[in-house]
Amino acid sequence: MMAGERELTTGLLSKETNFRLIVGGPVGVKEIERLIAKLELDQESPAEPDQNEDHEWTYAECRSTATPHPYGFLA
Q1: Strands, E, within the chain: which ranges?
Q2: pTM of the prediction?
Q3: What confidence score (pLDDT) does residue 22 get?
């Protein structure tokens, strides 16, 4: 990571895929809402479908199975 950056959250996307969200600067509800909107746009036009996954997770499914975040607004 670069100076001023921090790991906001991590998690699993599938059996073989995990993620780390690295941010720099203050992050609040407004920034999280923008991130969600960008991810939803990316979901509408994926670059390449994942051939290793049997199931394409929707945003709603991800939210319904998410572990609650300690800060509440990331769950």
Answers
A1: 5-12, 18-24
A2: 0.53
A3: 93
